[in-house]
Amino acid sequence: MPAPRPPRRVASVIRLRPEHAETYRTLHRAVPQPVLDTLSRAHVTNYSIFLRENTLFAYYEYTGDDYEADMAAIADDSQTRRWWTLTDPCQQPLDSARPGERWVSGEELFHLD
């Protein structure tokens, strides 16, 4: 039996609008269960968001077989879209983001298991 495939590690960043910092913190103290369930169904695990100097850094691991389809399923979920109507106004994409892009991916330079 082949060894299990390691998860895909995903890191991304976005700015937090300082005037919305407390709102964003409050929202993430009680993420709706349907949003969490959608992430789990899409094979997203070990998900964390960190904050430093108005920059949000997100990290998660993807354990599925079709990343694009699973990310599309998250985006199609009505509860997740509602959640984003609350969180998106708190965020400001980095200058390097492409038009329509919000969170921008980070390049993995080092990893230690």
In brief, what are we looking at here?
This is L-rhamnose mutarotase. The chain is of the alpha+beta class and 113 residues long. Helix content is 34%, strand content 27%.
Can you tell me about this structure?
This protein has 113 residues and is α+β, with helices and mostly antiparallel strands. The protein has helices at residues 21-29, 33-41, 67-76, 78-87; strands at residues 8-16, 44-52, 55-62, 91-92, 104-105. Helix content is 34%, strand content 27%. The protein is globular, with a radius of gyration of 15 Å. The two termini are 22 Å apart. It comes from Streptomyces parvulus.
As residue ranges, the low-confidence spans are none
- The succession of helices and strands, N to C, reads EHHEEHHEE
Secondary-structure-based class equals: alpha+beta
For the largest beta-sheet, the strand count, sense and barrel status come to: 5 strands, antiparallel
How far apart the termini lie comes to 22 Å
Number of helical regions: 4
**Rg from C-alpha positions?**
15 Å
Q: In which range does the helix fraction lie?
A: 25-40%
What is the typical, i.e. mean, pLDDT?
A: 96
Quote the beta fraction.
25-35%
Q: Count the strands?
A: 5
How does the overall form come out from the CA principal axes? Answer: globular
Question: Helices, strands, pairings?
Answer:
Elements: E1 8-16, H1 21-29, H2 33-41, E2 44-52, E3 55-62, H3 67-76, H4 78-87, E4 91-92, E5 104-105
Antiparallel strand pairs: 1-3, 1-4, 1-5, 2-3
